[in-house]
Amino acid sequence: MEHKGFQKIIKDMRVDVESGQPLSDTMAKYPKTFNRLYLNLVRAGEASGTLDSILDRISSFLEKDLALRGKIKSSMTYPVIVLVFAIGITYFLLTTIVPQFAGILTQLGAPLPLLTRVLIAVADFLKTKTWLLALIIGALGLAFRQYYKTKQGRHVIDDFKLRVPVMGSLLRRAAIASFARTFGLLLSSGVNIIESLEITKGTANNIIIEDTLDNARNVVMVGEQMSGSLATSKIFPPMVVSMVAIGEETGSLDDMLAKVADFYDREVDEAVEQLTAAIEPIMIVFLGGIVGVIVAGMFLPMFSIIGQLSK
To answer: What CATH number labels 50-311?
Structure first.
């Protein structure tokens, strides 16, 4: 291990195991490194005598989960870079180029159209009160974070994430793939269905999905099938519900979930490709539009002056 902190954890775990403690108990001392999912799988492996195969499954799961998260991040990288670039160019034009043109237009005494007056006012504000804008943005960001910490805030924002056009569909597919793979791994490793749903709920990172899985858990606890509960949610499409129902009836729920995870992995791949293909021209038009508006605002008075001189 190259990471010094993780080196120490492994050394301490070795000492505990040599003293007779189960591996899962030593891992439980480091909750920031080994989460609840990891611990329950290791405990199941110790109890069944299949720890080696369980660790192999965990490795495969983490690789696929990391790949899934990487796809989501990659889909956002390009638009974020272009957006930052657009903001930087806009700020430069408004605080450097526009004031120079404004000075020239003032000296010429040219009548200024509304667009030009607005651009000059924005440029003056940014040049003298950028700190105020930064303070407002910081306050809004802090207020957003505080609101998200509330239960109502999480419901509103997480629901919006799943409903936003294009990106919401991608997040929903990724959430279904993550649910199916996590839940299926736990079941196939010998963890009981109640505990598996509770652990899977904790890995959802979306309160809407957490509530859906919590309802499914409550349904299973009273002896009913979870597919009925999933069918009433707006998260899981009919195909997933049908696969879960078939798995429950045939006793092969883990296999059905593995197929669902593989299917939605491909869906995420396709969605990322479509999103990237759609965003690229949109962001180019967006950037060109910003620059075009600034250029038009500065040159419209020039055209008026040239028109007066030609008469």
So the answer is: 1.20.81.30
Which residue carries 């696969």 as its tokens? Answer: 243
Task: Please report the DSSP string for 291-306 in residue order.
Answer: HHHHHHHHHHHHHHHH
Q: What is the per-residue pLDDT across 237-251, written as a single tens digit (0 to 9) for each? A: 999 999 999 999 998
pLDDT for residue 307: 63
Cα 49 to Cα 20, 55, 61, 78, distances in angstroms: 16, 12, 20, 47
φ and ψ at 235, to 5 degrees? -90, -45
**261 close to 181: Cβ distance less than 8 angstroms:** yes
Give the span between the Cα atoms of 250 and 256, in whole angstroms.
Answer: 10
- Distance (Å, whole) CA 19 – CA 281: 62
**Structure tokens given for 43:** 């405990």
Pull the structure tokens for residue 72: 């989501």
- Please name the residue that has the structure tokens 């006793």: 251
- Tokens for 221, please give them: 């606890």
The dihedral region occupied by 49, where left means phi > 0, alpha psi between -120 and 50, and beta the remainder, is left
Angle at 271 between CA 262 and CA 145, to 5 degrees: 100
The per-residue pLDDT for 269 is 83
**pTM for this one?**
0.77
Sign of CA dihedral 239, 240, 244, 247: positive
**Collapsed DSSP state (helix, strand, coil) of residue 165:** coil
Domain ranges for the chain, please list them.
Answer: 9-49, 50-311
pLDDT in tens, 187-217: 888 888 898 888 888 888 889 988 999 999 9
Burial class (CB in 10 A: 0-12, 13-18, 19+), 165: exposed
